Amino acid sequence: MDRRQFVKDVLLWTAGVGLGVPCWKIAPVRAAPLPPLLGVVKGKDYRLLVEKAVTIVGGMAAFVKTGDTVVIKPNIGWDRSPEQAANTHPVVVRALAELALDAGAARVQVFDHTCNEKRRCYTNSGIIDELKKIGDPRIRWEHIDERKFVPVDIDRGKSLKRWEIYKDALAADCYINVPVAKHHGLSRLSLGLKNSMGVIGGNRGRLHHNLGQELADLATVVQPRLTLIDATRILLRNGPQGGRLDDVQVLDTVIASADPVAADAYGTTLFGMQPREIASTVAAYEMGLGEMDIDRMEIKTVQVG
Amino acid sequence: MIDTRQKPQDARGRLLLLRRIVQHVFLAIFLVLFIKTDYSGSDRLDAAVNILFRLDPFLAAAVVLGVKTFVALMLPSLVVILLTLVLGRVFCGWFCPMGTLLDLSQKLLPARDKKNRTYFPGLPLFLLVFALVAATCGFSVAGYLDPFSILVRGLAQALYPMLNSVTVGFFTFTYQQLPDFVNAFTEPVYGVLQDFVLPSGQKFFHLASFSLFMLLGVLFLEAVQRRFFCRNLCPLGAMLGFVGRKGMFAGHGGNEDCGACRICSKNCRMGAIDEDRKIDMASCTFCSECAAKCPRQIISFGFSLPPAWPVFCCPRSRGWKCWRKIPTLCSSDLPGRWPKVIFCGAVSAAPNVSRSVLATPCSRRFFRRDSTACSAQCWWRGPATANSTAPSAARFVRPAPSGS
Questions:
Q1: Is A67 exposed, middle or buried (0-12, 13-18, 19+ CB in 10 A)?
Q2: Mind listing the pLDDT tens digit for each residue in B266-282?
């Protein structure tokens, strides 16, 4: 039984009472207006890619106001080097951090709830070294502090009703999601929505039982203002951890969008797949969290350098 | 005019103080090494607590016997053996972190036993032999008997994770429940603790309670007797005692003139001073407490010549009386005689003996005064030379104070 069939059955057996679930009301509201804007930029200079992509979607000033607290959430989950494509590329993270600082951010926090040993991940991903080069005290990279996980009621959640979420991610004025595009053994691909698992605590493995829906539920409370998918190099197989350079393909691409679902949907096409093949994209789309139809997006593709 | 001469009491008190400082410094070094051995995010460890195990000759012997291969990693243990040859069990009394912890726990758990008689004096040596034989047979028990193994395992598996759990729990409470002005003080403290003291994360070990039980057991035995573990169990101590009793270092205890005073033996944490107030160098750890507390200031420690070196003997009407040091005159029941030099052991050939005797500075003095009296008497498991009899009941005693 797939989800649609289930919904039909439920409607039939409950004589339509199920229509009262709030998410049904929200879906058309968010889906109806302007098509989401996507900046897809290709080129060798990763710093330039990020600047250009952010400019296309409105510039950093559209997301960060002077004095804002900004959280940049890359994927630093694995004890892997940048070329192994398991973590976000350090140059991409640094470029975003610098853009946020230029836009007047009072503080830029960078963190991830790692899967491998935290210090190895932070160091071997190359991200900390790159951030240190900025040499700005407003940049704060820190390891996850378990005390900062707060239980959050996920009112709109269908499968995930309550979970511990990192306080700083929720409290930030601007939350920027910077996933790396890569293969994932359970969710097929790990993109923006999957990257949000890096700001939650508890027994994260539990989410994998109904991952697509639960990621969509999580996306109702962890809402990035900007999603920038790092596809400078993508991991085609053996994700999410990877390790083999044979599994890595260099695409020299970044995708920026304010619509997290649209960014994921476009990212899916880089792997030669359709957005509907990714359960979390479909679930989030159906909850009205964003657009998944490529034809209904405004995609600006630019080649730089 | 200020008297700048040191009173002996001061010097002895200072030695005691020095020993305590050394103990605490080495305990601190041990703890720093222990913390630094936790994973720090780097694949390289510059300093690790394993140096303690590498210094341990008991473990070195067990490892080498167990794997039947020379293990170069354990070479530092020779340093401890050499130290023990020179200074006796000074390692136990001055450097061993377990010993220091036991001495410290005395403040919390004063020993009940006042007689201060070691319960099982032969047990450490038995455990040493047992562990080494077992290791040779491929059965590894050394790690359950060795003091550093008990200490480091108890700390690493039980106490350190417990410390982390309690500390994090406390600061989680202050962070989540208490107002900001409290956190303004507690959070920096927590940061410092995290940076320098606490492990990187909460760990759990299956053997945690067993390891804790062993370590606490050793510590709680202090309530029975001071240094209970060192005296009654420690195979490393037995090994060092075995080496040290043959060493150059010796304590000179009280004598018959002490009367009823037993302050030295009552205060000896190792039970090393016997009924005759002789100090057993197989047990003595040179804590120097006896010397500091002796009311007559007659207990002293010093180097004496190894058994292979000359022994000086004075003829008595019945047998001989011998010293490891050179007495000025034979002032016993045959006064006016010069002591004779007796060689015990090392000199193998009689013709060379006299030259060896002449070469030692002190004997030259005797030679100058009375060449006949200093004629060497060579004893090497053979018959005596002319005009001398074997010092059959040779008793090695402390020389009388000079000039008497």
A1: exposed
A2: 889 999 998 888 888 89
Cβ–Cβ gap A118/B171 under 8 Å = no
Q: Strand ranges (DSSP E) for B316-403?
A: 320-323, 340-344, 377-379
Whether B127 contacts B237, CB under 8 Å: no
State pLDDT tens for residues A166-175: 999 999 999 9
Nearest CA in chain B to A146: B172
B183 CA to chain A: closest CA distance, Å?
13
Contact A142/B at CB under 8 A: no
pTM above 0.80, yes or no: no
Residue B258 · residue B106 · CB < 8 Å: no
Determine which of B45, B167, B172, B173 to mutate to test the interface with A (most A C-beta atoms within 10 Å): B172
Radius of gyration of chain B (CA): 27
User: What's residue B136's pLDDT?
Assistant: 95
Instruction: Report pLDDT for B352.
Output: 29
For the segment B213-241, the average pLDDT, to the nearest whole number, is 95
Contact of A119 with chain B, judged by CB distance below 8 Å, is answered with yes
Residue A102 CA, chain-centre distance (Å), reads 22
ipTM score assigned to the predicted complex? 0.73
Nearest chain B Cα distance for residue A124, angstroms: 10
Average pLDDT over chain A reads 90
Between chains, do B176 and A117 touch, taking CB under 8 Å as contact?
no
The two structure tokens encoding residue B191: 């940061």
